[in-house]
Amino acid sequence: MFGEFNLIEKYFSDRQPQRKDVHLALGDDCAILHVPNHVRIAISTDTLVAGTHFLADANPAWVAHKALASNISDLAAMGATPAWVSMALTLPSIDERWLAPFCTAFFELANYYNVQLIGGDTTKGPLAITLTVQGFIPQDKALLRDQAKVGDWIYVTGELGDSKAGLDVILDPKKREHPFAAELERRHYLSTPRVLVGQALLNIASSAIDISDGLMADLGHILHRSQVGASIDVNALPLSKELKQFVGELSLAQQYALTSGEEYELCFTVPEENRGALESALAHTACKVTCIGQIRPQGIIELTRQGKKLDWSLMGYDHFKEPV
Ligand code: ADP
Ligand code: MG
């Protein structure tokens, strides 16, 4: 696309240490990779489109982080160890003021997770980034969505709701005046994929998913695939002080936590007999996890506050209330 201007050479080649399992990366028609023995390959693709997933004038470093972090989060949700990434980049023009910070942030995060860029494609058109990540899972192990059982405990990593509050700030300039607006906006873009947690859960969790569409929607995928129900204690939801102050009301903050998308935290289920092992398995991850409820028989999906059932609407995201 870019003729004699050697964009790929300048921005994408030789920006990373060579992994031992990469025989040939950028520069030829294909990448060539060594597949280690006794592992399976987990593969996931995600696209970010300007105007849909981020505003075209968003900080390019944050866009790069979001694109790669959301892809690596899918590997984390399977318990996979990230290894390789390829990138299809569609650019309206060669804007070096956009490309330079985009690439710097991309390689910084890729290096942190020891993920090597192995190839890609670059085309002209409306701004969009498609990444395909690949990682390793030990044979016969993976965190799937269909193995949650009645009685298992439901956990989430980190804190929930900040990403939705950050999106409020991005979409409504009036909200920028709030003292935590800048921090919440930053959190919307700069999530932390929970790779170490996912790996540590391989022998412990019965199911896992990453929260990209909102806790209730994503937990809903586990419930549907596992043919079970759930009870969630909304007072147990982990909330940041910034979120609580930003929305001003606890029950609204809880509603944000239930519905906020693009969090890239993990939601997972743990059988009673593995609960004791969970803490020591996660000790090295420096990641907070919180038990928010329990798997129930199919057909029961309830939210409770101090033991009382709440009236709620999953579809309408209505402000939920105790039944009168
Ligand atoms: P081809 O015509 O065979 O598709 P390209 O000219 O598109 O080759 O790409 C040349 C080389 O640069 C390939 O090895 C390709 O993987 C790599 N490449 C192109 N665009 C990107 C990108 N955005 N990120 C990483 N590698 C890229
Ligand atoms: Mg090409």
TrEMBL record:
Question: Ribosomal protein: is it a keyword of this entry?
Answer: no
Instruction: Name residues in a coiled coil.
Output: none
Q: Which reaction does it catalyse?
A: thiamine phosphate + ATP = thiamine diphosphate + ADP
Entry EC no(s):
2.7.4.16
Residues bound to Mg(2+) 5 are D213
Q: Please report a single Pfam family linked to this protein.
A: AIRS
Q: In which pathway does it act?
A: Cofactor biosynthesis; thiamine diphosphate biosynthesis; thiamine diphosphate from thiamine phosphate: step 1/1
Q: What is this protein called?
A: Thiamine-monophosphate kinase
Query: Whose protein is this, by species?
Result: Vibrio cincinnatiensis DSM 19608
Gene this chain is encoded by: thiL
